[in-house]
């Protein structure tokens, strides 16, 4: 029902008159982000409606699957462009004509802030509303910190902003974020019907800035104080959460206009913080790794039935991940007893959900009904995908794959969950290496987000595409890796763990190293982690690698001495730390210190002291250097693949973006200078990666390899972040 009087807008904004209602549709795929053109168009639309006496109300909707996914994240860090989003929101709120938002799908960040600036809000059942800016190192900066508490109270507003969680339409109604929940999927139709009702009722313009949820000052102050106390404890070095609390405090203390000024100041502080840069890098990197050259070129094979070989911790975790995604799983074990243990390992996970009230007994039964088990490989004859998770030994894996080759139908994808082994060799145990791929899950496999998709020499493109499609249905974060010992993550871990071992033998205690790495932002230090995972795993790997180890290479034997005593970590009650009576947190062990002292004597080391900063510099330099090697050898497609791997599989702090992003922030020349300085003591271990050297010589950074089409020249900063 276009009329001649419709304002001429831009392609991202469609305005249509429906009698006296101006329907404004934001059409900026993929998520209708509020880029500069959309912001300009919205101002024009509101101005046009204001001027036109025939328009009584404006309805804002989004085209496609979402209302608005937020501000355009790609604009952060670039010079700001007028109009600013908070001004657009203010203009909407100030309109003398009724403005209504009908939201569906993602209604996030600036998208929700815009809806809150409208005078009335309707949500369709598909709506997911939230203020997730905290995940990007930001705060809601388009009035969200001022309007939300006025509308729903400081405590609830803070909970939403500090968690960044999405709420559905029903909860949004209960919280008072929206006025009504509509039906169906057509936001324009539902919205138009409601606006007509509002107009018929003579509903007044109603501005959220005037809403009264902050009226009870004492109660509101109590909610803010409580949120500040918890945030101070939980934020672990994150910058924006306390700024969010400050902004809400301003909402309570100041008139709306002054509060908006304060919100802007705090928003800009967050925007300028390195954490914002790190978190935005992580956001885009996580989306980039979900694609691979093969996903663009080939179609995934259909996966309806899956087999898992092995019912141990890993196999059971993988089975749970598959069951959670709604797939039927057939588990293979070598005998009935092992199969019963495998089933019990799976059932344990669901039983604990039932015990915690997260799952009903009936739902648990329904999930387990999709599990079947067998001791005969022939049960896998009709599986579309089989994931092998047996003992980490080449001969064992080869035997499993020979069996799979015998029983599986043509076109079945045959995957190995090996963490280190040569997948080309495993593939060679079959007559169909094109169907073989690595799917490296991380323990616990049903929880950890990372999935390394390891592409072997002969893996077919559609098998790779199938693995990526599987990752999506399992809600994993996939990273494409090439074949080498340890792929991306474990190969790097082996190197930076050695750097830590050198520091330990040279004088630092495991406690100091763990503390330094935690202070850097890791949730757990390397020795605490080793104790948690079990030191026997690393020991087995070191023994396997012993024959190929360079005899001139420095080899710290402390961990081996502990393993020889059976001190494998938490599961044996002691490792690098003591865990009396099943304790989850370790206490320092004088006997471990005695082992370390003895090893120092044996190695002829005179212990020296280290600052925490030096420990971190060595750990990170080793990590970045090996990350550069991994990219150089094309084991990782780009530096951002290394970043996503280390963030999602190894606890690297996400707010630093990943080790390669961190290296760019510190400046690659600084990292290289550190490596060259450390090489004075141990030139074999500290060999600068050829890629790192080349980038420094050309004045480039790792980011330039993430988007080779836009080579960036980096002016390195001096200080370590
Ligand atoms: C903000 O609003 C600040 C304000 O408070 C103040 C300002 C002054 N911008 O995730 P997907 C791209 S901060 C630009 O795969 P899904 C994404 O990169 C913002 N691009 O889809 C990808 O591109 P590509 C607060 C964006 O369906 C494509 O869209 N908002 C944005 O699984 C598809 O993304 C948020 O933090 C954006 N805002 O999930 C929400 N969002 O195809 C962030 C997405 O080239 N976004 N893209 O790889 C999300 O959480 C999810 O993307 C969403 C869709 C749930 C919307």
Summarize the structure.
It contains 30 helices and 19 strands. It is of the alpha/beta class.
Describe the structure.
Keywords: Fatty acid metabolism, Isomerase, Lipid degradation, Lipid metabolism, Lyase, Multifunctional enzyme, NAD, Oxidoreductase, Peroxisome. The protein is α/β, with parallel strands linked by helices and 721 residues long. The protein is built from 30 helices and 19 strands. Helix 4 (144-152) crosses helix 9 (240-253), helix 13 packs across helix 14 and helix 19 (489-506) runs antiparallel to helix 25 (612-632). The protein is globular, with a radius of gyration of 29 Å. Mean pLDDT is 95; it is low at 1-5 and 711-721. The structure holds (S)-3-Hydroxyhexanoyl-CoA (3H9). Residues 30-31, 33, 69-74, 85, 106, 108-110, 113, 132-133, 136, 138, 140-142, 144, 284, 287 line the site of (S)-3-Hydroxyhexanoyl-CoA.
Query: Might you state the CATH topology name of the largest domain?
Result: 2-enoyl-CoA Hydratase, Chain A, domain 1
Named CATH architecture of the largest domain:
Alpha-Beta Complex
Please state how the strands of the largest beta sheet are arranged side by side: 12-11-10-13-14-15-16-17
Would you state the CATH class of the largest domain? Alpha Beta
Helix content: 40-55%
Query: What compounds sit in this structure?
Result: (S)-3-Hydroxyhexanoyl-CoA
Number of β-strand runs: 19
CATH superfamily of the largest domain: 2-enoyl-CoA Hydratase, Chain A, domain 1
Structural class: alpha/beta
Mean pLDDT: 95
What is the rounded distance between the termini? 57 Å
| Beta-strand percentage range | 5-15%
| Main sheet overview | 8 strands, mixed
Q: What is the approximate shape?
A: globular
Report the uncertain regions. 1-5, 711-721
């Amino acid at each position: 029902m276009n009329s001649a009087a419709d304002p001429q807008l831009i392609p991202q904004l469609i305005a249509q008159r429906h009698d006296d209602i101006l329907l404004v549709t934001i059409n900026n795929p993929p998520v209708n982000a509020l880029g500069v053109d959309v912001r300009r168009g919205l101002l024009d639309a509101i101005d046009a409606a204001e001027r036109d006496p025939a328009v009584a109300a404006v309805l804002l909707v989004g085209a496609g699957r979402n209302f608005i996914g937020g501000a355009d994240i790609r604009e952060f860090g670039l010079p700001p462009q007028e109009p600013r989003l908070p001004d657009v929101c203010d203009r909407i709120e100030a309109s003398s004509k009724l403005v209504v938002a009908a939201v569906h799908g993602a209604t996030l960040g600036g998208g929700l802030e815009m809806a809150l600036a409208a005078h009335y809000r309707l949500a369709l059942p598909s709506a997911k509303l939230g203020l997730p800016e905290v995940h990007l190192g930001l705060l809601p900066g388009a009035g969200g910190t001022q309007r939300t508490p006025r509308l729903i109270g400081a405590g609830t507003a803070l909970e939403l902003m500090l968690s960044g969680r999405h709420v559905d339409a029903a909860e949004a109604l209960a919280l008072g974020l929206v006025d009504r929940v509509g039906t169906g999927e057509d936001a324009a139709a539902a919205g138009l019907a409601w606006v007509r009702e509002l107009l018929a009722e003579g509903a007044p313009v109603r501005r959220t800035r005037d809403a009264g949820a902050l009226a009870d000052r004492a109660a509101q102050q109590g909610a803010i104080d409580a949120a500040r106390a918890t945030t101070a404890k939980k934020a672990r070095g994150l910058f924006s959460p306390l700024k969010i609390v400050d902004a809400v405090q301003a909402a309570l203390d100041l008139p709306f206009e002054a509060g908006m000024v304060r919100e802007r100041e705090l928003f800009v502080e967050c925007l300028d913080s390195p954490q914002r840069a790190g978190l935005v890098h992580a956001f885009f990197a996580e989306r980039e790794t979900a694609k691979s050259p093969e996903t663009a070129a080939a179609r995934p094979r259909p996966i309806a039935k899956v087999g898992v070989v092995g019912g141990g911790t890993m196999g059971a975790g993988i089975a749970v991940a598959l069951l959670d995604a709604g797939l039927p799983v057939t588990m293979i074990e070598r005998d009935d007893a092992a199969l019963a243990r495998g089933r019990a390992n799976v059932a344990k996970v669901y039983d604990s959900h039932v015990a915690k009230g997260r799952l009903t007994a009936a739902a648990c039964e329904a999930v387990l009904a999709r599990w079947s088990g067998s001791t005969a490989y022939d049960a896998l004859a009709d599986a579309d995908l089989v994931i092998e998770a047996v003992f980490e030994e080449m001969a064992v894996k080869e035997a499993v794959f020979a069996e799979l080759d015998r029983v599986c139908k043509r076109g079945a994808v045959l995957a190995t969950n090996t963490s280190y082994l040569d997948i080309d060799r495993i593939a060679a145990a079959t007559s169909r290496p094109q169907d073989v791929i690595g799917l490296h899950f991380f323990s616990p496999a049903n929880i950890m987000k990372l999935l390394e998709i390891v592409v072997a020499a002969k893996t077919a493109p559609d098998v790779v595409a199938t693995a990526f499609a599987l990752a999506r249905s399992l809600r994993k974060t996939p990273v494409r890796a090439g074949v080498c010992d340890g792929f991306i993550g474990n190969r790097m871990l082996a190197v930076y763990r050695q750097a830590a071992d050198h520091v330990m033998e040279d004088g630092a205690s495991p406690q100091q190293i763990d503390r330094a790495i935690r202070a850097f932002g890791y949730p757990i230090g390397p020795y605490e982690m080793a104790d948690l995972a079990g030191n026997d795993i690393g020991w087995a790997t070191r023994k396997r690698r012993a024959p190929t180890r360079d005899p001139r290479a420095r080899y710290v034997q402390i961990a081996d001495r502990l393993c020889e005593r059976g001190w494998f970590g938490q599961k044996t009650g002691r490792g690098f730390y003591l865990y009396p009576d099943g304790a989850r947190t370790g206490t320092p062990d004088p006997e471990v210190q005695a082992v370390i002292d003895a090893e120092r004597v044996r190695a002829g080391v005179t212990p020296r002291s280290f600052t925490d900063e030096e420990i971190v510099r060595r750990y990170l330099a080793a990590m970045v250097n090996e990350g550069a090697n991994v990219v150089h050898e094309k084991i990782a497609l780009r530096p951002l693949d290394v970043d996503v791997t280390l963030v999602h599989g190894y606890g690297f702090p996400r707010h630093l973006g990943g080790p390669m992003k961190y290296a760019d922030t510190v400046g690659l020349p600084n990292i290289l200078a550190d490596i060259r300085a450390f090489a004075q003591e141990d030139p074999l271990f500290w060999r600068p990666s050829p890629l790192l050297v080349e980038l420094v010589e050309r004045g480039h950074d790792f980011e330039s390899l993430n988007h080779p089409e836009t080579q960036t020249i980096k002016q390195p900063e001096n200080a370590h972040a």
